[in-house]
């Protein structure tokens, strides 16, 4: 007789406030390993676990170069004071790296390879600027270039193509962005984020939230990606993407404690949610950011649920056009989507964003008293991770 399948539970999740990812940002003087360690240490302090019981620390980072290279997960856990016996590994699924870390941790627990694992992520974009890992080189190679001739495109162009394909106006994009800032500012004002953050220094909010943002103020911003080259490539585009309706560059980290139900009981841990279903998909690398649509469909089918069964959503706001297109295709209830703001306001610290969204999702699910939460993240190259959690 076979035993019942193991399940992976989320004991706790924590994140730092998100800082501006540029010189002068609140964390710009902090080494990314030490920024990572803040969330790891906070997770231990909050749960009271002996870090020696952790079977693995799986961490996401995108700019794996310079101070964020050399398997930053290992150095982060050592900086957090974990015993030398605890291993760590760093993964890269671009913006979904720490969401993928959660998937790997949960899969390891379900398979019986782990009893207790930590999924985490970090990005210091102030110290490792976006794209630093490429070193000015062609990362895709000539064969891929031939397949997608005349060339692959930057994410900003993908965001423009999505806006055009789904007929999304500049006003719609700016209205979405303004609402993200309003919701996030209101959440901080009402103390909704306080219990989910690990303080780093004097920063007491997410640094890129602008409470006074309006559609009118966003409307005055210049176009971010239109230039002679891309306008020549895509003369049909009615350009509408700006810095204001896109996510900013940021610094931040997050960490999630995952365990089997048996291990949680053994160590006196109280689970907050269960990892119900996960999925990862690929999609067109030119549109690049649309994979969240099939990823959502796949994870719902795998879970045996419909879009209406989900009580709260966290959809990464890489660009306003991405989330608006996703909603148009899925029919998700807007009142359940990013209820306390998203990356356009809170920020997008790349490798740390999956953990940040998961932390917010767990808390938002408890806030509304719901059962199911769905998180989905678009990723460079035409990828997306989707996760459904179930509140316990």
Automatic annotation (TrEMBL):
<protein>
    <submittedName>
        <fullName>Acetyl-CoA C-acyltransferase</fullName>
        <ecNumber>2.3.1.16</ecNumber>
    </submittedName>
</protein>
<keyword id="KW-0808">Transferase</keyword>
<feature type="active site" description="Proton acceptor">
    <location>
        <position position="348"/>
    </location>
</feature>
<dbReference type="Pfam" id="PF02803">
    <property type="entry name" value="Thiolase_C"/>
</dbReference>
<keyword id="KW-0012">Acyltransferase</keyword>
<dbReference type="InterPro" id="IPR002155">
    <property type="entry name" value="Thiolase"/>
</dbReference>
<dbReference type="Pfam" id="PF00108">
    <property type="entry name" value="Thiolase_N"/>
</dbReference>
<dbReference type="InterPro" id="IPR020617">
    <property type="entry name" value="Thiolase_C"/>
</dbReference>
<comment type="similarity">
    <text>Belongs to the thiolase-like superfamily. Thiolase family.</text>
</comment>
<feature type="domain" description="Thiolase C-terminal">
    <location>
        <begin position="270"/>
        <end position="391"/>
    </location>
</feature>
<feature type="domain" description="Thiolase N-terminal">
    <location>
        <begin position="9"/>
        <end position="262"/>
    </location>
</feature>
<dbReference type="InterPro" id="IPR020613">
    <property type="entry name" value="Thiolase_CS"/>
</dbReference>
<feature type="active site" description="Proton acceptor">
    <location>
        <position position="378"/>
    </location>
</feature>
<dbReference type="InterPro" id="IPR020616">
    <property type="entry name" value="Thiolase_N"/>
</dbReference>
<dbReference type="InterPro" id="IPR016039">
    <property type="entry name" value="Thiolase-like"/>
</dbReference>
<dbReference type="GO" id="GO:0003988">
    <property type="term" value="F:acetyl-CoA C-acyltransferase activity"/>
</dbReference>
<feature type="active site" description="Acyl-thioester intermediate">
    <location>
        <position position="95"/>
    </location>
</feature>
């Amino acid at each position: 007789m076979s035993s019942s399948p193991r399940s992976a539970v989320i004991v706790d999740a924590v994140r730092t406030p998100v800082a501006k990812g540029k010189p002068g940002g609140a964390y710009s003087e902090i080494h990314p390993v030490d920024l990572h360690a803040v969330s790891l240490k906070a997770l231990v302090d909050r749960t009271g676990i002996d870090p020696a019981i952790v079977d693995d620390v799986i961490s996401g980072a995108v700019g794996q170069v310079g101070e964020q290279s050399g398997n930053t997960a290992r150095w982060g856990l050592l900086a957090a004071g974990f015993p030398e016996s605890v291993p760590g590994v760093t993964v890269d699924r671009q913006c979904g790296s720490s969401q993928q870390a959660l998937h790997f941790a949960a899969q390891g627990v379900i398979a019986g390879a782990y009893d207790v694992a930590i999924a985490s992520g970090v990005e210091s974009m102030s110290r490792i600027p976006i794209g630093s890992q490429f070193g000015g080189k062609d990362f895709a190679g000539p064969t891929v270039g031939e397949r997608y001739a005349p060339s692959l495109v930057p994410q900003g162009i993908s965001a423009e193509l999505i806006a055009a394909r789904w007929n999304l106006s500049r006003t719609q994009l700016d209205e979405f962005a303004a609402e993200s800032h309003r919701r996030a500012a209101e959440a901080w004002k009402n103390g909704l984020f306080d219990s989910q953050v690990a303080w780093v220094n004097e920063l007491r909010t997410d640094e890129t939230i602008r409470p006074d943002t309006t559609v009118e103020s966003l409307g005055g911003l210049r176009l971010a990606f239109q230039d002679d080259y891309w306008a020549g490539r895509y003369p049909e585009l009615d350009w509408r993407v700006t810095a204001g309706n896109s996510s900013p560059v940021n610094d931040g980290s997050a960490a999630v404690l995952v365990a089997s139900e048996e291990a949680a009981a053994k160590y006196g841990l109280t689970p907050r949610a269960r990892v119900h279903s996960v999925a990862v998909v690929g999609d067109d690398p030119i549109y690049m950011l649309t994979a969240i649509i099939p990823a959502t469909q796949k994870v719902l089918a795998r879970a045996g649920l419909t879009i209406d069964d989900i009580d709260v959503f966290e959809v990464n706001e890489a660009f306003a056009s991405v989330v608006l297109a996703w909603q148009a295709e899925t029919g998700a209830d807007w009142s359940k989507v990013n209820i306390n703001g998203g990356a356009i306001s809170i920020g997008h610290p790349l490798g740390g964003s999956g953990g940040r969204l998961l932390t917010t999702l767990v808390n938002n699910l408890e806030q509304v008293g719901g059962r199911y939460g769905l998180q989905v993240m678009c990723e460079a190259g035409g990828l997306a991770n989707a996760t459904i959690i179930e509140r316990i």
